[in-house]
Design goal:
Rossmann fold; 5 strands; elongated; two-stranded parallel sheet; three-stranded parallel beta sheet; binds tryptophan; 2 domains; 14 helices
Amino acid sequence: MGKKVILSGMQPTGQLHLGNYEGALKNWVSLQNDYEMYCCIVDWHALTSDFEDIGRMKERIIQMAIDYLAAGLDPEKSVIFVQSEVKAHAELHLLFSMITPISWLERVPSYKDKAKELGLDSYGFLGYPLLQAADILVYKADAVPVGQDQLPHIELTREVARRFNHLYGEVFPEPEALLTKFPALPGTDGRKMSKSYDNDIRIADSEDETAAKIKKMFTDPQKLRKGDPGRPEICPVYGLHQIYTEGHEDILEPCRTGKLGCVEDKKRLIENLNETLRPIRQKRIELEKDHDFVIDVLKDGASRAIQRTTPVIEEVRKAMNLAW
Ligand code: TRP
């Protein structure tokens, strides 16, 4: 029996932050040993909202691929590739668009809100989750590692697979969501870590940049100086300690009694965080010197993705009586 197939996707946002790493990438790195993994950098999805800002797309893709490799995705095991290099995604998306009622897409939660928020009313934006369904099904993926927010998209994927199978015969398995239950990481301002909030700490940051960000980080606003009692449960610095500091429970008492000041506490976090990330960052620096290698990884990934998807798309054409 071959390994089960997993397909995962991420929009090319550029350099990843610790929330991306802890919430998704780290999980992928461990999954690659047990599954046949396809890691898709979804540039077409990025274009559904970011169609004006195309100048930096390639650099963003490369920066993300560097983070993948530095974090330990192994191109011998995992297939890392750019979506737009594998045209089968587009063909399947087109065919799915024929059998998918618009109402299915309009009722995907977040569609209307996001469309309004971003002022988007394009055909492509409405089709975002259907393109995602094509990404997944064109690999006949068994499972998709995603966060909670993506569950409606996986549900739609399953519905489209069922509808296709009903119309044209059994072609697609119904993929399962592999839920990554990782709580959102706090950013430096206490909100969820996010590139768009400008409160993120990146894999690519130097140790000094990391230290500077943590020194400016919000803490319990009622704890103004050492001696004041703190509330670690609402403190974003403690939120990061929970991930990066072994024995972080020992911080609770001295913080609550005021014996431990924020300056000293942050110093400890800076050391632990930098130590954890050191090997990844080291590798990152090496990869930065060799973009050609990274591009070769992506090209090789695309050709392996094409190998996987070609027979699937042929089967689809046969099922729909499009094969000549
Ligand atoms: N919508 C996903 C996100 O925003 C990205 C994505 C596109 C994806 N295609 C995918 C995720 C296929 C998993 C599988 O995170």
